[in-house]
Amino acid sequence: MPKNQMTEAKPKKFNSIEDIMRDPLKKSKLQNLVDEAVQCKSKIAFEQQNIKALRDAALEDLGLKPQLFNNFVAMTFNNDYVQRKEGLEQQLTLVELVMGDAQIENDGE
Questions:
Q1: Is 2 helix (H, G, I), strand (E, B) or coil?
Q2: Residues with Cβ < 8 Å from 69, sequence gap 6 or more?
Q3: Angle at CA 44, nearest 5°, toward 43 and 48?
Q4: Chain centroid, CA 30 distance in Å
Q5: Distance, CA of 58 to CA of 53 (rounded, Å)
Q6: How far apart are alpha carbons 99 and 94 in whole angstroms?
Q7: Per residue in 21-41, pLDDT tens?
Q8: Angle formed by the axes of helices 66-78 and 24-62, to 10°?
Q9: What's 80's DSSP letter?
């Protein structure tokens, strides 16, 4: 069966692991799914190391803070520029309001 292709109906209830492991076909299918998931996790771990190397290069070559690099990558990957800008504007408003409240309290002391 090709990767990520769900051709069978999903079960309406969960099967116990004991039932699955007793059935050689289900056990084999489960093991294949687990093996594929482990391969995916290995690829992810490898790519995370590549991203870390790129982040380190941005720091070393450009002096860019790692968190800013991460944010830039995430923003580009998610293509969520507008949502991030709106979120930052709301955070800035909150900080300004809290600072204003704190200043009012400090003036009254």
A1: coil
A2: 54, 55, 58, 59
A3: 120
A4: 25
A5: 9
A6: 8
A7: 999 999 999 999 999 999 999
A8: 130
A9: -
pTM score, whole prediction = 0.66
* 26 in Cβ contact with 20 (< 8 Å): yes
Q: How many CB atoms lie within 10 A of CB 79?
A: 8
Q: Which two tokens stand for residue 27?
A: 């056990």
Burial (Cβ within 10 Å: 0-12, 13-18, ≥19) of residue 75: middle
Residue with the two structure tokens 């771990």: 45
What lies within 8 Å, CB to CB, of 70 at 6+ separation is 55
The per-residue pLDDT for 106 is 37
